[in-house]
Specification:
about 150 residues, disordered N terminus
Length: about 150
């Protein structure tokens, strides 16, 4: 959603259920595609590390998901599925995968880097939850992660 269409994050403090403002990314995540394979906290973390404005990252992730989602069966055949949840499948793919996808989608280098980081961080999160973080960290030294929503 473009900035001018998104309400500025100036929530009134007099609402008892109001959350403190944390920037545009969280509201963009909340308003974004429910099929996103990347969790909102991961997007916030990635946006802080990447040189992409936080409000742009959910849209980039959605575009990548739109491109990869229809290819899920192909990914299952071609790549190692290392984690599967009811919402997403995490694969280890060859180095350079995100450069190829980014070029296909017309992303700039920094946008491609942000998407790659988001997918890697999501894989790390899966690894932490499942007691496999070290395994996934080692795998990311030689490959990249692709997390595709169902």
């Amino acid at each position: 959603m473009p900035d001018e269409d998104r309400p500025h994050d100036d929530r009134s403090d007099d609402r008892p259920d109001a959350e403190p403002p944390v920037g545009g990314a969280e509201s963009a995540v909340a308003d974004g595609d429910d099929e996103s394979p990347i969790e909102g906290q991961i997007l916030l973390l990635t946006a802080a590390k990447a040189s992409v404005p936080p409000q742009e990252l959910p849209g980039l992730v959605a575009r990548a998901q739109s491109a990869l989602g229809p290819r899920l069966d192909d990914y299952r055949r071609r790549y190692e599925l290392v984690n599967e949840t009811p919402d997403a499948c995490a694969f280890l793919v060859q180095r350079g995968h995100w450069e190829e996808v980014g070029a296909e989608l017309g992303f700039e280098r920094r946008e491609t880097d942000a998407i790659r980081r988001a997918h890697e961080e999501q894989l790390r999160r899966f690894g932490s939850r499942e007691g496999r973080r070290e395994e996934f960290e080692a795998a990311l030294e030689i490959r990249e992660a692709a997390v595709i929503g169902r």
